[in-house]
Amino acid sequence: xxxxxxxxxxxxxxxxxxxxxxxxxxxxxxxxxxxxxxxxxxxxxxxxxxxxxxxxxxxxxxxxxxxxxxxxxxxxxxxxxxxxxxxxxxxxxxxxxxxxxxxxxxxxxxxxxxxxxxxxxxxxxxxxxxxxxxxxxxxxxxxxxxxxxxxxxxxxxxxxxxxxxxxxxxxxxxxxxxxxxxxxxxxxxxxxxxxxxxxxxxxxxxxxxxxxxxxxxxxxxxxxxxxxxxxxxxxxxxxxxxxxxxxxxxxxxxxxxxxxxxxxxxxxxxxx
Amino acid sequence: xxxxxxxxxxxxxxxxxxxxxxxxxxxxxxxxxxxxxxxxxxxxxxxxxxxxxxxxxxxxxxxxxxxxxxxxxxxxxxxxxxxxxxxxxxxxxxxxxxxxxxxxxxxxxxxxxxxxxxxxxxxxxxxxxxxxxxxxxxxxxxxxxxxxxxxxxxxxxxxxxxxxxxxxxxxxxxxxxxxxxxxxxxxxxxxxxxxxxxxxxxxxxxxxxxxxxxxxxxxxxxxxxxxxxxxxxxxxxxxxx
Lengths: 272, 241
Hints:
The structure holds two protein chains of two kinds.
Chain A: H1 2-8, H2 10-90, H3 100-128, H4 131-136, H5 138-152, E1 156-161, H6 170-191, E2 195-203, E3 206-213, H7 220-228, H8 233-245, E4 248-253, E5 260-267
Parallel strand pairs in A: 1-2
Antiparallel strand pairs in A: 2-3, 3-5, 4-5
Helix pairs in contact in A: 1-2, 2-3, 2-8, 5-6, 6-8, 7-8
Chain B: H1 2-30, H2 37-61, H3 66-89, H4 93-117, H5 125-148, H6 159-184, H7 188-213, H8 233-236
Helix pairs in contact in B: 1-2, 1-7, 2-3, 3-4, 3-5, 4-5, 5-6, 6-7
């Protein structure tokens, strides 16, 4: 310091030093402020993209509902409609003028058609809300679904629930069932898997569901790409249901690169 | 001309003294109902500065030797306020826990310096120099944490940020001044420069503190970390198919 003072003079050292330090402080503050502004701008862009994605998911969900309605309408119109019309034909006004044997046969035929209609309507109703799920809960419904798949002989399937003492709410169970149903359908349709295995477990307030299969699967980045693209309505529905559940979904492959796994983490709803 | 300079210096002196009370006025206007430990620390610091300014003005007038004691004690008290403020706002526990140790070390150093080393010099340049370096380093560390973290709010709309830059600018600006005072305080030209620079940075400090008083207290909202817990894979492979 004394060397500087003798060569530059007291005022020069003081003024230069003070100005230097002052500008250093200002520069530091400016760097932090500008950097933070850039980060905020970037975050806003991401937020905007996320909003657009939400919109897309909502549209996909609405589209899915419309398609479901159309399918139900088609089922009712094409199957239940003609069946009931035929039954009506058997039971027309001329029935009383016919011979008793013919009357009996017509009534029997009409009864059979009405039975068929009842079965058809029951099937439609079951496709909307599985009765096992409604009556016995998620574990029974999943096991029932997997038993049916197993029974087809095309693919081996099994489900195991490790800790289902504290069940999810009815609404959550239905959403989880739909997600798992969609995932299983996708695996059957696209993966050429030899087996599907579902495991459930719980840790604290989170319930985990994991599906393993040995077919061609997708990874997290594929899932994100597909649900952002125009294709993959099923995946969009999965994502929108996952959002409603406030859950997380991970698509991975195991370390041996043999099995693909899909894990869903569902937080339990607080008791109302 | 000489009269004008004296008048300007006098105006500067009174502005400097008056500016010390400005942050308190802003506190009463904007933050009277504000709750938060960091705000309280800053408030007590402002009150202490006002008290110190008034007392030093009086002691200088009566040419009391107590002025030197006030000068030494100000460094220690100011550093204590700053350390506590930093302790409250720094996010990392490890750094936060080191603050009491640094504070203790500095207090011990400042006391030893004032009693034994700097006994007859009249100005605690060395202690203030060390204090400035520590404070500047803490401020830079705070800015670094703000740079690294992702926060929802703009950094310059937070109270803590403005208090930190107040300290940063004040201690950067007066660093050389206080460092040289020790050896130069007998020089008349230096005394004038000291007076001008010191009062200018004091005014700047008080203006920045006033700005801080108009800012939001809760500045940061940390992003939640998306941590996936390790799952027991054995469990999921437990059943042979």
